Amino acid sequence: MAVLEIKKYPDDILKKKASEITDINGNIQKLIDDMIETMYKSNGIGLAAPQVGVSKRLIIVDISPREENNSLIVIINPQIVSTEGEVLSEEGCLSLPGFITRLKRNEKVFVKGFDRKGKEIQIETDGLLSRAIQHEIDHLEGILLIDRISPLKRELFRKKYQKIKK
Ligand code: NI
């Protein structure tokens, strides 16, 4: 396993729509293992393949406290089947270091996809897990947190980001 470099805004790969995985081969297994190691190392609760430079539809999520590491979810080709309700909460992203914003998301989601063995999985959830899954699926569509906030907030982010860059 290896810790991968996390792509940061404004890397172009973060804006690309990721492609479906048609063969869960050894390369995908290695990618999953590396993403797991990278996520835990970065203290993230989720990671999408485009964030490590691979434009494929694969996400991992683990919202358990770090010392437990026992509720890891790997979803290949995730698909949101249905949603319910709305909830406002704070969110950050490993590709936008230091940026946290309040954001409306669906409260509940029903997600379908495949696990790393290729078995079909269905997840119905709410709370932080629902939010994390929606956030990671956004990455597969090339959508970042800053694409979901108001134009005014986005402008403030850009100005702040420019300052950090200098
Ligand atoms: Ni993110």
What report would you give on this structure?
The structure is a single chain. This protein has a five-stranded antiparallel sheet, with helices on both faces. It is α+β, with helices and mostly antiparallel strands. The chain has a single domain (12-165), classed as Alpha-Beta Complex (Peptide Deformylase), CATH 3.90.45. The protein is 27% helix and 29% strand. A hairpin with a 5-residue loop joins strand 4 and strand 5. The structure holds nickel (II) ion.
List the helices and strands and how they pair.
Elements: H1 26-41, E1 46-48, E2 58-61, E3 73-92, E4 100-114, E5 120-125, H2 127-140, H3 151-165
The protein binds nickel (II) ion.
Characteristic key phrases:
3 helices, about 170 residues, Peptide Deformylase, alpha+beta, binds nickel (II) ion
